[in-house]
Amino acid sequence: MTQQTSNTQAGSTRNSYRKSHGGKGVAPLFGLLPLAVLLLIWQIFGNPHSVFFPQPNRWLTAINSLQQQGTLWTSILATASTFVQSIIVATLIGTTLGLALGSINWGGKALDPLLDFLRNLPAAALVPAAAIVLGTNTKMALVIVVFSSVWPILLSTRSAIMNLSPVLSSSITNLRLSGPRRTSVMIGSALPGILLGVRVAAPLALIVTLLAEFITNLSGVGALILSAQQNFNSAEVYALLLLAGVLALVVNSIVSAIEASVLRRHGPVTT
Amino acid sequence: MSEVRNQDEVIYQVHDLSVNLRRRGQERVILKSLSFDVRKEECLSIVGPSGTGKTTLLRALAGLIPYAGSVRYLGETLDGPASDVVLVFQDYVNALLRWRTVQKNVALGIEGRIPRDQCQERIDEAIETVGLQNYRDSYPWELSGGMQQRVQIARALAMKPKVLLFDEPFGSLDAMTREGLQDELLRVRSVFQATCVFITHDIDEAVYLGDRLMLLSGSPASLSFEVDIHLGETRNQISTKESGEFLSLRHQVHEQMRKAHGASQSTN
Asked: Which CATH superfamily is domain A78-265 in?
């Protein structure tokens, strides 16, 4: 009980190291102030008849009309669903492979060139290939997003496992832990590394989700942006750009919050 | 103390043990031709300067590293992690699982292996033995260094091991905490009848805790001196350490260590 209350007190020591762990809380909202000021200046000094730089109030009108057409929320949902499914699948695959590759000694360096090759394949270039193989559908989008966001998780997990303390590995062997018990201890100690990978992967997954929608015109926020651009509806383009930014911000705070709450049991970072 | 020993009074029979380790591609002889026994329920102190290979010796006894020569544990050749042998590491921070509470850490070696109620009983017993009953649900990082080391000892005790291998367990603790834990260890040993091998570079600690003491020195390391310690069952930080027996043992070990050091210097 007392622990919980001290947790919620801003400025308590507990809280301050949580922040350094990635739990940012409300802090980014204050950081958005410059953007808000910029939009305000735009609104006040902007040209009401500008084609390329519509004032922010026209963005709101555009968003509103999208909502009335009923496409706004379905698109956001479609994007969110692709994103959430992908990040979950990427986390599962990345953690499993990272765990496996980190546990075998020769896997450390021998597979590096291959991993570097795969990791650096640009997602945009993959879309046509995946479209040929899988067709233009949600499944294809999932594959592309998983493929591009799995690497940070995999590599981060692998390095966490490879850097396990020798004392801990000796303990595991000495206590004769094997099978799921061994794995759970290893995952537990690699958890900060795994979550770091997820934190890096999440924005990437969102970008690639939008990109896949953009290129293939699957329903989603990316497709909305594309059609807005094709219809020369610049206010809508800006509005959706802002929406994408907000989505990224939301994703980032959710992931950080999850990370902070999972790592609460790990205590302060020791390096 | 008869010289003729029954076979089952000997836990370890080590004969001509050598260990080579590979470091940065170079094979180095760490231990060379060690022969000794570890007797049932004794506490064998092995003392030697830092970097001699004391930890390597313990890891060999735990069956964690390959070796040459013969190590017989309970009469059988050791070829893999030994059962009922628990290591207690100096580095308690990494030995404990930071995301598990004290209770769950102590459970690590026995959970899923024995019935649940029996498991809980053993956990409680071990935690009470090291005096952490008020910290069951704390996380290791919330505790002081000395308390964390107690958690590691409790984890070992809960397994009811035949052998406890201590690898400089109190090396990173302050002097006061260390003395407290030394006495605690003596008390624990009187309750849990386990055989102990205790490694340290601190001669006073080695004499205070041991029933027998061996000196490990040189590079590659070998055993250069052995002595029985007769300080009785109950020992006291003040009176035992002022007794003639303690002081003369301490003197002998210091002298032998200096001699061994001198010898290794002249061969270099």
From this structure: MetI-like (1.10.3720.10)
